[in-house]
Amino acid sequence: MSFKLKLPFAIQWKIPKNRFNEFQTPTDECLKSDTYDFPNIPGLYYRLTIFPNDDHCPGECWIFLYLTLPNDKMKIESYFIVTIESANFSFKENYVFNDIKSGRGKKCCKTEELFDPEKKFFIDEEMTIKADGFLMVETNSVERKIWSCNNFSGLLGLSLWAQENSKDFTIFVDEKMINVHKCVLSATSPVFARMFESGMKESEENKVTIKDFSYRIVETAIKYCYHSNLVNDPTIENKMKVLQFFDKYNIQLFKVSFSIFFCLPIY
Q: Domain of life of the organism in this record (predicted)?
């Protein structure tokens, strides 16, 4: 019996403005995001690519989602949205990938508009491109997965969450506070671990402000780092946003768990 797997993905790609300087004239060169994979589908990879001034479409900027498939017999249906929020740009796609290496994208703007401050493609000398959606993969052999989120040290995580007086770090989101333990964040996120070890301002002041996620999403993600029983099962949409948080802060343990959840077979 064949099944369809629903594979969610989310990318947040920050590009320094100076990387666009070499694209003042048309070229076949492009900028590429990191390449990501799916733990349960070997050989399937995805990334974003931007052509700021492609020689096939001179004077135009195009953005693509690129896929590499495991073999030339596989067909993957995709549903995704790509956004540059600061510039109020977005596009949605429902597209079937059937070549081993191929991309799907749309024109973003004229090349000259990229550098127009009024268009707001760059904020603080940086462009942020986001993409999220899911792929539908048909397979003949798949083990049915059950949602099971790994816990941080079992009951220890529950006990730590309840100990407000021992929390030594504060996350500010939407003018609200989430008090946490540095040891928990360090154990689950290499990004936070490096922050604490580097002597950065946030480490010295024992606080950080997060602006690109809502309070609900950050709180949900942090609670998962302690114990999944602390979380009311979020909606599919919020799970996608929590997955983006796990991706940004490299919380691998829970990224895998969320991928397993989304890969429940669809008959």
A: Eukaryota
pLDDT digit string, tens, across residues 198-218:
888 888 899 999 999 999 999
Element at 246 (helix H, strand E): helix 236-248
Give me the CATH code for the 155-266 domain, please: 3.30.710.10
The answer to whether the beta carbons of residues 169 and 180 sit under 8 Å apart is yes
Residue 85, phi then psi, degrees to nearest 5:
-60, -40
Decide: 217 and 235 in contact? Cβ < 8 Å: no
**Residues 136-194 pLDDT 10s:** 887 654 344 434 444 444 567 777 888 888 999 999 999 999 999 999 999 888 899 99
Q: For Cα atoms 25, 36, 2, give the angle at the middle one, nearest 5 degrees.
A: 125
153: its two tokens: 């040290």
Cα–Cα dist 32/19, whole Å: 11
Average pLDDT of 81-96?
94
Beta pairing partners, 135: 7, 78
Instruction: Give the separation between CA 94 and CA 120, rounded to whole angstroms.
Output: 27
Which helix (H) or strand (E) segment is 94 a member of? strand 89-97
CB 158, CB 226: distance < 8 Å = yes
Which residues in the chain are classed under CATH 2.60.210.10?
3-139
Calpha distance 176→169 (Å, rounded): 14
